[in-house]
Structure formats: structure tokens, C-alpha cells
Amino acid sequence: MKNKQLTIRLIVMNFLQYAAWGAYLTSLGRYLGNAGLGPQIKWFFAMQGIVSIFMPTLMGIVADRFIQAQKTLSLCHGLAGAFMIAAGMYCMGAGDAIAFAPLFVLYSCSVAFYMPTIAISNAVAYNALGKAGLDPVKEFPPIRVFGTVGFICSMLLTNFLKIDGVAMQDTWTQLISSGIISLILCGYALTMPACEIKKGQGQSLADAFGLKAFTLFKDYQFAVFFIFSMLLGASLQITNGYANTFLGSVAADPALADTFAVKNSNALISISQISETLCILLIPFCMKKFGIKKVMLIAMFAWVFRFGFFGLGSPDFPGVLLFVLSCIVYGVAFDFFNISGSLYVEQNAEKDIRSSAQGLFMMMTNGFGATIGTLAAGAVVEACDVFNTPANWAHAWYIFAAYALVVGILFMILFKDPQKQAR
Prior knowledge:
About 50% of the residues are buried. The protein has about 425 residues and is mostly helical. The longest helix has about 30 residues, at about 100-130. It is globular, with a radius of gyration of 21 Å. Helices cover about 75% and strands about 0% of the residues. It has a two-stranded antiparallel sheet with strand order 1-2. The chain has 17 helices and two strands. The protein has two domains: about 1-195, MFS general substrate transporter like domains (Growth Hormone, Chain: A, Up-down Bundle); about 205-415, MFS general substrate transporter like domains (Growth Hormone, Chain: A, Up-down Bundle), CATH 1.20.1250.
């Protein structure tokens, strides 16, 4: 009974953890575009990558050596929530005269404290399961799935809930919603089982920052793998930042303004997260059947279809079916590389640097890759002049698809199958 209660408590924590993110992540670009900040969308999403390069490590050291992890989680969510609410309140007060600088500063402070909570919440869950005598490797994945469920529920709330007749995905209220959820988790995190502080007994500073893992770049295979991790990480933020923005801009066409895909774009995009949840179940079979290299290649070419279907589709029927297909293949594109990539690191890095190597993998994908990808995508979107000529969105999506295709082909040529090398 106690173990069941603990599982439920951890499910609630994971649900809130990702619900705070889902409240705005896929709809912020749409709101910013409507607020006249379309050209600046890239900076808002790039900031998530920039802070992911260093903030998770810094706050991880705090949690390991100074403040218990559950308290660090609470502190981070408290600050993230407060800054996000402040950003929403600024937008409310500014009305139609929203300036980039004050909104960006408040938003940046919020995500700087939110991004570390992804890893810290995992650490809190692992600690709780370990104290209960449960195997985190076996017990945590089913719990973590409810994080994606929370993300989806929050997306749908942002899509369908209207305030004063306007959907949250079109207003600053999505920021307030995210902030409130973070503040709830700020309090809830303090109820989690206490984590130990490893003051004075932990790793060296170099190990804490994962610097030893950089020696993996001396190995050709790892160097190729990490470089392509960065290139694939670039693909992820493209649709986070611009998919909803694209669908929202179509509303300028009176013939398409009332279509489901335009009015309920966040609900449509939530199919991506549903697919992500289901595709996790396919990974064990695919890994056994095809091996790591082929699974990663499947993910890379899935990105080609993800972007290509957006370019070919349209909000009305039957073109909207291509949008749906794009969302379905997202599950393969996201899960197959992130999870199989993590397994590659686990199986091939030396035991004493596996944790650091995992951190390096995340740094290359969610840090450098996300930052570079967002800024590059922003440059493509601006070059295509999509905000003045919405019809040019198709050109941008085709460019992104071509990029993913080139990355996939190069990976196929340059990366050697570990299973074949072992023979």
C-alpha cells in the first residue's frame, strides 16, 4: 500500500512538472506572432537551449552539495513560477504595446530556473523509489509517462479554455497558467522524501561539470554521435517554436480561419505528444530488430516527414490529414533518437563517466542543438518573409525537411554500426 501511495505521489509530481511546460511551449510562438513579436520568436525558444547549457549543471551541484534536491526543486519552481506570472502580468498591463526587452527578461529568468527542474525532478523520483526499495529502472518509466500526459492536458486546456471569449493560446493567460502550476509544484515538492546532501564527499568540480566526458570526443564514433546529436537537437525546437505560429498565421485567410486546425492548433499539435507516449512502447522491439544505428536513422528520416507534411498540408480537408500524419511521425522522430541515443551512451561509455556522458548528450541536444536550431530556423522563417506572406510557410518547411534529409544521409555514411564493429 505504501509503495502504491508513493507511486501516485510521484505521478502527481511528474504530471505537474510537465504541465507547467505544456501550458505555453507549443502556443507561445502563436501569441508572440499575434503580439507583433514574430521576428523575436527565435530568441524566446533559443533561450531555453542557452540556459540548458549551464543551469542544469549549476543547480545540480546545489542539489548535491548544499540544498536537498526536493528543496532545490521547490526553490526553482517557485522562482520560475513567479517570473512567468510576472511576464504574464506585464503583457496584461502593456496591452497592444508589448515591448520585447521586458517580456524577454522576465521569460528568460523563468526558463533559467525551470529547465534544471527536469533533471532534478528525476533525481527526486529516483531517490524516493530507492528509499522504498524499488528499482528505478523498472518503476520510473511508467511514472514518467504521466509527465507527458500532464503536458498534453495542459496543451488542451490552453487550446480550449477561453477567457473573455478568447482562447488562452492567443493570449498572455498561458503564461499565468504555467506560473500557477509551477507555484503549486513549489509547495508540493516539499512533501517528497528527503534527499541526501553529499557535502564534501562528491565528485571533483571537473567531474561535476561533466568535463571528463569531453574526452569521448577523442573517439571518432562518439565525436560523430555527439555532433549529430546537436544537429538533431536543432530539429526539435523548429516545430516547438513555429508549428503553432504557422497555423495561427493561416487565420489571415478568411476561407481557412474557421477550420479546426487553425482555431484548435494546440489540440492538433497535442497529437504529437500522444504519439510520443505510444512510440515509447515500440522502442524495445525496434532496438532488438534493427539495432541502434537503424533506429536512429529511422528517427532522422522521420524528421523529414515531420517537416515535409507541414509543407504539403493545409488546414482544410483533406490537407489537414497531412498535418495529422506530421504529428504522428513526431513520436518516432523524437523518441527513437532521444532514447536510443541515451542507450548508445549507456552501452558504449566507460562506466566511471556514464553519468557525465549522459549530461553531455543532453547538453548537445537540448543545449547547443536547440539554441543553434532555433536561431537558424528563425533566420529561415525571416528569409521566407512568412509573417508578411503566409503562403511562404511551405518554403520554410521544405527547407527544414531538406536539412533533416541531409543530416540523415550524412549520419548513414559517417556513423558505423556498433554491432558490426564488434564482430
